[in-house]
Amino acid sequence: MANTIKKQVVLIVDDNPVTRMLMTQALTSTELQIVEAASGEEAIVQFTLYKPDITLLDVSMPGMNGFECCARLRALPKGVECAIVMVTALDDVEDIEQAFESGATDFITKPLKWPLFKHRVRYILKANRTLQELSLNKNKLAKAQSIANLVYWEWDFESEFLECSSDMFDMLGFPKEMNLTVRSALKKIHPEDRTKLIIALKQAIYEKQSYDIEYRIIRSDGSVLFVNERTDISFEYGQWRIVGTLHDITSRKQSEQEITYYAYYDTLTDLPNRRLFIEQLETAIASAKRHQVQFALMFLDLDRFKYINDTYGHHIGDEVLCQSAQRIRECVRDSDLVAKANYDTDNRVARLAGDEFTVLLDDISRVEQVAEIANRLIGAFSSPFFISEKHLHISISVGITLYPNDGHNVETLLQHADVAMYHAKEKGRNNYQFFSESMDNYLKLRLEMENDLRAALSDDQFEVYYQPQYDAESMAIVGLEALLRWRHPTKGLLTPGYFIEIAESTGLILSIGNWVLMQACCQVRQWQQESGCAYRIAVNLSASQFTQSYLLETVRKTLKESGLLPETLELEITETAMLKDTAETIPLLFSLKKLGVRLAIDDFGTGYSSLSYLKNFPIDTLKIDRTFVEEIVTNSKDCAIAQTIVQLADNLQLCTIAEGVETSEQADVLRKLGCAEFQGFYFSHPLPVSQLSLLLKH
Ligand SMILES: Nc1nc2c(ncn2[C@@H]2O[C@H](COP(=O)(O)O[C@H]3[C@@H](O)[C@H](n4cnc5c(=O)[nH]c(N)nc54)O[C@@H]3COP(=O)(O)O)[C@@H](O)[C@H]2O)c(=O)[nH]1
């Protein structure tokens, strides 16, 4: 198939048919298609139909003249792309000016020079096509640049003015008609990045070095744009020029910032996370080492946070953490010390994990300054948190280490701050402690015990000892108290004083307590069967066992499995544990009572001693605490207290048992006061099963 070349269309507009004919004759060729119009009105119709590439337009025509026609043709589709050449008989400057004002591309004056006419038209057609292609390419380039968020600029070092793509005005927030200069563009650069760009520009001008840098632009509306600027330096037409592109990389930067944020910040509290904190601590160590100064690291832990989380749910827990972060931040921000050290204070507070926070205090000259801030932090938690209509009281325990005294590296400093914080917890919470070597030793020992204790149950290292309880009148053994012992592989036989608190704090007490209960019930059931006596067995319950929801089920199951009669089991609970949360303990005590077991208040008289609870609680026995028995013979006040307890028990029809009876004199006084039962070294120490079996036999 032959290649058909598209003909270019020439529209000849002239009211004179002879001129039209002559023009047509002059232009007729295989490459051109000629269309004619005898008036301006007809020209518009023909233009719409043929969309010519060139229009030769006579100026003086009856009706619509050439100028008006030109303006109307420009407004038609493809009107802008068409070359419109005014053909005028008048070689008049005014006409020529008016021709350009109405949108003409060029003009030809009559009389036409026919030998040149054809070439002139062809030249205009060619020039117009080149212009069209240029404009098309420009548009394509502009579109590609806009898709790529790219703007372009050019600067010859000689002048102030910048030549640039129109998008650059939008990017900088300048009006399009403004004369953009290097100086005005520089004013838009973020002050922190300006020097960097000026240095790069100077190197470009003086050393002819192109550059590729990133910086920020502050737009007129205040928004910040991140751009990447790449340049090329060339020497053209005897002039040095720098050509550059600005690539809008704001969204990439924002994504990078987001990624950094998630990697280095805690999204709940907006504080630096453990990772960033470790980096900051490393920097602080390096800087303190260089300047030979000391700094403090504070380790903060919220007291009772687990309780808040478990009781009120995670959403309240999260809010507590957010408000805590805020309180810590404000406390540190207010501090004179921090102001002096010129901190980015928000970054000096971090959330390590859960309810653990840290504070870094640089350049400490006096330890008192740190103590002052610690006090301030503790004080900041003295007012309750108000969350979801609830007032929640939360305190903090703070551990403090000092660089370089307490450690030279991140690991040691953190570990020691943690040790100090634990010490603050042990000291009753809501306080701060500085780290010390002895504290470290103590806690290491404790940690060792904790690990040993975890293995003790599975390794069968526990034993139950039994201490007899005697009837004050007949002196017969009526009951036994089960007392836990730990046969430690290296430390020997340990009494609960060495480990019960660790068992409590680690939660191990629950499984150990259940084991003691089962052990004691089975053993006493055996002694009951062997002797035919209904010995009672007293078992101590820790506060955490007592508040455990499945205690009732555990006791029921133990009684069933051991076959022990419920009325021969007495559970000893301290006054403090019993009164901790009466809304929960009263129903539990009644449920236990319903099982048929006996309930005793241990260490009676040493706790809150709110006597009103005695009438509400289904108690069977009051155990007079050893501290009143100790000096009962010599101290009339102790004697009076013991007497009051016995009388109170009598009136409420409760049984009394005195613990810690070490002499016959003590037993005599207690007997005279009417105490029903005795327990103590005077009668028998707690004994292992084998020895107690012998004692019971005899
Ligand atoms: N939750 C659990 N707590 C338990 C368990 N076993 C014991 N304990 C608690 O430990 C406390 C200390 O017990 P222990 O070292 O065994 O001391 C008991 C007796 O040895 C001691 N005692 C008895 N008579 C005398 C005496 O004449 N003088 C004297 N100085 N001490 C004496 O008293 C302890 C018994 O006290 P109490 O329980 O208050 O009757 C112990 O108090 C328990 O709370 C356990 O299995 N679970």
UniProtKB/TrEMBL annotation:
UniProt KW keywords: c-di-GMP, Phosphoprotein
Domain PAC, which positions?
211-261
- Enzyme type, top EC level: hydrolase
Q: Which parts of the sequence belong to the EAL domain?
A: 446-698
Which stretches make up the GGDEF domain?
A: 293-437
**Residues bearing the modification 4-aspartylphosphate:** D58
* Biological processes, Gene Ontology terms: cellular response to nitric oxide; phosphorelay signal transduction system
Gene Ontology MF annotations: cyclic-guanylate-specific phosphodiesterase activity
Keyword Phosphoprotein set for record: yes
Q: Which cofactor does it need?
A: Mg(2+)
Q: InterPro entries attached here?
A: Biofilm_reg_signaling, CheY-like_superfamily, EAL_dom, EAL_sf, GGDEF_dom, Nucleotide_cyclase, PAS, PAS-assoc_C
The reply to whether Phosphoprotein figures as a keyword in the UniProt entry is: yes
Query: CDD domains in the record, alphabetically?
Result: EAL (cd01948), GGDEF (cd01949), PAS (cd00130)
Give the enzyme's EC designation: 3.1.4.52
Where would I find the Response regulatory domain in this sequence? 9-125
Q: Which PANTHER family does the record cross-reference, listed alphabetically?
A: BIOFILM ARCHITECTURE MAINTENANCE PROTEIN MBAA, DIGUANYLATE CYCLASE DGCP
Q: What is this protein called?
A: cyclic-guanylate-specific phosphodiesterase
